[in-house]
C-alpha cells in the first residue's frame, strides 16, 4: 500500500510538470529517481509528517455537478470541463471565467482541479506530489477560514500599498485533494480564490463519511472480456498491420460520469449502438485497459489481455 501511495505522489508530480499546473514552472519532466528526490525534499520542506488530519474520515468523494455550481455561485461561468477516468492527475478539472455580458470568454481564468482518492493517505500524497512540482514554494495557510485539513497558498504580486491576493490555493480534506488557481492573463487574480476553495471544501464536507455500511459510490465493473460479435453483426475488418478487430463486452453498474480506454498495441473504438472494439495497430497480444469515473469522482479500472486473430 505504501508503494502505491508513493507512486500516486510521483504521478502527481509528473502531472504537475507535464500540464503546467505548477506555478510559473518551466522544466523538463524529471526521471523517476529525480522525482523521488523532489518528493523527499518536499516531504521535509512542507513538514508532511506533521500535517493535521491524518485520522480524518474518508468521504464519498464530491458531487461533480456541484463543483460546476460552486463556481457559478461565485459569479463565474463554466467554460471547460475535463473528466479523467484514467490516472494519474486530478479526477476532474474545471475552467471558469468571469461572466461578460452574459457570456463568458472561451479561455478559463480560474482552474479548479480535484483529486478523489480511495483513502486519506493517498490524497495527502497526491497533494504532496503537486507541491513538489511547484517551482517556488507555497506557504502554509492557517487560521479561521483556511480550507481542508491542511492548506497551502501561493501569493500573487501585491499592488502598491495593498495586500497580496492568492494566486493558488491547494488543500486536502480527508481523501479529497484540490487545487484552485488563477490562470487568467492578468498578473493579479480578479476573483476571490479563497471563496471558491471554501465552496469546494464544503462539497467535500457534505459527502457522507465512508464505512462498511456506507461504501463509496464506485462504478462497479461487472464484466470486461473479449467476445464474439453478436449474431447478425457485420464482419470486423482486419487492420493491415495488426490483425482483425476484436469485439469487447463491458458491463458496469453504478453512477458513471466518464470512461476511457487504453491499449498497448492499438486502440478501442466505438461502433454503432455503443459497441466497443479493440482495433490492433501491431501484431501480438495486447493489454487493454478500461477506466471509469463515478459521478462522485472515484476511479475504477480493469484490464484484459487480447489476442487478435490473424
Question: What is the topological layout?
Answer:
Elements: H1 2-18, H2 32-45, H3 64-73, E1 76-83, E2 92-100, E3 103-104, E4 110-116, H4 120-132, E5 139-141, E6 150-155, E7 166-173, E8 176-182, H5 193-206, E9 220-227, E10 238-239, E11 243-244, E12 246-253, E13 256-263, E14 266-270, E15 276-280, E16 286-294, E17 299-306
Antiparallel strand pairs: 1-2, 2-3, 2-4, 4-8, 5-6, 6-7, 7-8, 9-12, 10-11, 12-15, 13-16, 14-15, 16-17
Helix pairs in contact: 1-2, 1-4, 2-4, 3-5
- Cα(first) to Cα(last) distance is 40 Å
Helix content: 10-25%
User: Can you tell me the overall shape?
Assistant: elongated
Q: What would CATH call the architecture of the largest domain?
A: 3-Layer(aba) Sandwich
Q: What is the residue-averaged pLDDT?
A: 84
Beta-strand proportion: 25-35%
The CATH C-level class name of the largest domain: Alpha Beta
Structural class computed from helices and strand pairing: alpha+beta
Element-by-element helix/strand order = HHHEEEEHEEEEHEEEEEEEEE
Q: So, the CATH homologous superfamily of the largest domain?
A: TM1622-like
Query: What is the overall number of helices?
Result: 5
Rg from Cα: 21 Å
Largest sheet: 8 strands, antiparallel
Q: CATH topology of the largest domain, what is it called?
A: Protein Transport Mog1p, Chain A
Number of strands: 17
Amino acid at each position: 500500500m505504501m508503494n502505491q501511495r508513493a507512486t500516486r505522489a510521483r504521478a502527481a508530480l509528473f502531472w504537475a510538470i507535464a500540464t503546467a499546473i505548477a506555478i510559473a514552472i518551466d522544466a523538463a519532466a524529471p526521471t523517476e529517481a529525480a522525482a523521488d528526490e523532489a518528493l523527499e525534499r518536499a516531504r521535509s520542506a512542507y513538514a508532511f509528517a506533521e500535517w493535521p488530519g491524518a485520522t480524518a474520515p474518508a468521504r464519498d468523494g464530491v458531487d461533480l455537478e456541484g463543483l460546476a455550481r460552486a463556481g457559478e455561485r461565485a459569479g463565474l461561468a463554466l467554460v471547460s470541463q475535463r473528466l479523467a477516468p484514467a490516472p494519474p492527475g486530478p479526477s476532474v478539472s474545471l475552467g471558469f471565467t468571469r461572466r461578460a455580458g452574459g457570456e463568458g470568454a472561451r479561455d478559463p481564468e480560474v482552474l479548479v482541479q480535484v483529486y478523489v482518492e480511495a483513502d486519506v493517505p493517498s490524497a495527502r500524497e497526491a497533494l504532496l506530489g503537486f507541491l513538489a512540482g511547484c517551482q517556488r514554494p507555497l506557504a502554509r495557510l492557517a487560521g479561521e477560514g483556511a480550507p481542508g485539513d491542511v492548506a497551502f497558498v501561493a501569493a500573487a504580486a501585491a499592488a502598491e500599498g495593498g495586500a497580496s491576493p492568492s494566486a493558488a490555493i491547494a488543500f486536502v480534506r480527508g481523501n479529497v485533494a484540490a487545487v484552485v488557481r488563477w490562470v487568467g492573463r492578468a498578473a493579479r487574480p480578479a476573483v476571490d480564490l479563497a471563496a471558491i476553495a471554501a465552496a469546494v471544501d464544503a462539497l467535500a464536507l457534505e459527502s457522507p463519511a465512508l464505512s462498511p455500511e456506507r461504501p463509496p459510490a464506485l462504478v462497479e465493473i461487472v464484466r470486461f472480456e473479449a467476445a464474439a460479435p453478436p449474431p447478425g453483426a457485420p464482419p470486423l475488418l482486419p487492420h493491415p498491420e495488426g490483425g482483425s478487430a476484436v469485439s469487447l463486452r463491458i458491463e458496469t453498474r453504478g453512477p458513471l460520469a466518464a470512461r476511457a480506454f487504453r491499449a498497448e498495441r492499438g486502440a478501442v473504438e466505438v461502433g454503432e449502438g455503443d459497441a466497443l472494439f479493440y482495433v490492433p495497430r501491431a501484431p501480438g497480444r495486447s493489454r487493454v485497459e478500461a477506466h471509469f469515473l463515478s459521478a462522485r469522482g472515484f476511479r475504477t479500472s480493469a484490464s484484459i489481455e487480447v489476442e487478435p486473430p490473424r
